[in-house]
Write a structure and sequence with these properties.
This protein is an alpha+beta fold. About 20% of the residues lie in helices and about 40% in strands.
Length: about 120
């Protein structure tokens, strides 16, 4: 797929350019061209709005991992890929048609040893 540049506006009024897949269809028209020959599209949402769409997903995953565990983990790490799009903002990205969440749970040995004593 061809690459393009999306301009995401930040809350402070500045903007950031991000390489994205070129939008399909004519829903979004390019607003400029850069010296590399890539088209620049104005993103439909700010970067903050795009990331705000992902927060509920991250929160749900973390809440589900925290609840129901007989021995709660001291640390929970969830990793997933984000892809920015001029049309949709932020998308949880997939590899080979599947979305993957990598989960790491850590227990502090000294704390678990103290609980069993």
């Amino acid at each position: 797929m061809e690459k393009a540049i999306a301009q995401f506006t930040l809350e402070d009024g500045s903007s950031v350019l991000v390489e994205v897949d070129e939008p399909e269809g004519s829903a979004i028209q390019p607003v400029a061209s850069v010296s590399t020959g890539k088209l620049v599209y104005q993103a439909q949402v700010s970067l903050e709005q795009a990331l705000d769409r992902v927060k509920p997903v991250a929160s749900t995953v973390l809440n589900k991992l925290r609840s129901g565990m007989t021995t709660p983990a001291d640390e929970i790490e969830v990793t997933f890929g984000l892809k920015l799009s001029a049309e949709a903002g932020a998308i949880i990205s997939s590899v080979g048609g599947e979305v993957t969440f990598e989960v790491k749970l850590k227990w502090n040995q000294s704390q678990t040893a103290g609980k069993s004593a």
